[in-house]
Amino acid sequence: MLVHWSVLVASGLLEAVWALALARAKGFTRLGPTIVFLVALVVSMAGLAFAMTGLPTGTAYAVWVGIGAVVTVGVSMLRREEDVSVARVLLLVLLVGCVVGLKAVS
């Protein structure tokens, strides 16, 4: 089961990679980011599919999305592409808490 969780976390991180690459691909007009998007998307989905063979579907999906969302927003804030505010950071912390809570009760 540890393998499933490890693959799920890696897949969640790759979700952030493909989301960030998608923004940089500019409607698939830039080749490099488009290739990164496609590779990260396929590997991320394959990892999620594998993780779901040993974890509850709802929990696996929520954890995957949560990791991807928090990392995507965090990187965007660090790059100054999105505003940083106390409310946004607090909501991201709450989201992480929810993801940890789902894992704890699984």
Automatic annotation (TrEMBL):
This is QacE family quaternary ammonium compound efflux SMR transporter. Keywords: Cell membrane, Membrane, Transmembrane, Transmembrane helix, Transport. The chain crosses the membrane at residues 6-23, 35-55, 61-78, 85-105. It holds the Pfam family Multi_Drug_Res. It is found in: Cell membrane. Belongs to the drug/metabolite transporter (DMT) superfamily. Small multidrug resistance (SMR) (TC 2.A.7.1) family. One of its GO terms (cellular component) is plasma membrane. It is a multi-pass membrane protein. GO terms for molecular function: transmembrane transporter activity. Its main location: membrane. It comes from the Bacteria. The keyword Repressor does not apply. PANTHER family: GUANIDINIUM EXPORTER (PTHR30561:SF0), SMR FAMILY PROTON-DEPENDENT DRUG EFFLUX TRANSPORTER SUGE (PTHR30561). It comes from Mycetocola reblochoni.
